[in-house]
Design goal:
It is a single chain. This protein is of the alpha/beta class. The chain has one domain: Alpha-Beta Barrel (TIM Barrel), CATH 3.20.20. Helices cover about 35% and strands about 15% of the residues. An 8-stranded parallel β-barrel has the order 1-2-4-5-6-7-8-9, surrounded by 6 helices. Helix 9 links the parallel strand 8 and strand 9. It is globular. About 40% of the residues are buried.
Length: about 280
């Protein structure tokens, strides 16, 4: 079991940017969304591994994106219609084992890396939260609750302590954002941004509410050759979710070095203004 931690407020401090989240640990690879791929991403220096959660017919939570087992495993049909034992026999294409469980990811992380887990269905909500409780993982796991308010409310009805990331956007995006922020929920930590929901006004509202921001970097520009994380951090966004983890961590480190250089620039001591600065 995990150690006793401070909870989501401690997680908020841990996630302040710039931070890198590896999309499924590494997208488009045979071992995407597996603990082995998460370990590779950890060694590449990421702060967060992003994953997807679905539940078997007997209540076991798996790391799995698609609603169907078809095309990515040796089995067919909805993952929700199979037992955990049956799913374990459904080898992932190119690998010699089936999908990993959320519990195995929690055991692997033990708090070393933050886990960003998207709740792909309503039914996975309670069993996933039960595992966070069991492993006392409140300060190193957060759940994506999607676009509207339904999944958010289901999570909150079950547990007020777990950390969540909401993704309001589209025609009702600003309304949903306003409703979420009006709840003054201290454990709503992150607002995920989208290209149609990205403005200085929206980002200011998020910051003023004490929340962090994230975005899928490939939504701003393709990541075919390298990560697009520098552009994400330049916009003041805290968390860059990327398909190119190793490239993104290098960009993160360059941004951090530049920030440190500005803080420690010659002639300016920490906490003081230079004579050239306004208000000096």
């Amino acid at each position: 079991m995990g150690q006793t931690h401070a909870g989501p407020r401690d997680l908020l401090t841990r996630l302040r940017g710039p931070r890198v989240a590896a999309h499924r640990g590494g997208y488009g690879l045979p071992d995407s969304n597996t603990v082995a791929r998460f370990e590779t991403a950890r060694r590449q220096g990421v702060d967060i591994v992003e994953t997807d959660l679905r539940v078997s017919s007997d209540g076991v939570v798996f790391l799995f994106h698609n609603p169907l087992l078809d095309r990515v495993t040796s089995c067919t049909g909805p993952i929700a219609s199979h037992t955990a034992a049956e799913i374990a026999q459904c080898h992932l294409i190119g690998l010699d084992h089936g999908p990993d469980t959320f519990e195995s990811a929690l055991r692997w992380s033990g708090g070393r890396v933050v886990i960003d887990a998207e709740l792909k269905t309503g039914a996975v909500t309670e069993p996933a939260i039960d595992l966070v409780r069991r492993y006392d993982a409140f300060d190193w796991v957060y759940f994506q609750v999607g676009v509207g308010l339904r999944t958010y409310q289901r999570v909150r009805d079950y547990d007020e302590r777990v950390a969540v990331e909401a993704a309001p956007h589209g025609p009702k995006g600003q309304l949903w954002l306003a409703e979420l922020l009006a709840k003054h929920d201290p454990n709503l930590l992150i607002i995920q941004l989208h290209p149609d929901f990205l403005s200085s006004e929206i980002q200011s509202a998020i910051r003023d509410a004490g929340k962090l921001s994230s975005i899928n970097a490939w939504r701003l520009a393709p990541e075919a050759e390298a990560a697009n994380c520098t552009a994400v951090f330049a916009r003041g966004i805290d968390i860059s979710v990327t398909n190119a983890a190793e490239s993104c961590t290098k960009q993160r480190d360059e941004v951090r070095a530049a920030q440190a250089g500005r803080r420690e620039s010659p002639g300016v001591t920490r906490g003081s203004r230079s004579p050239a600065e306004p208000g000096a």
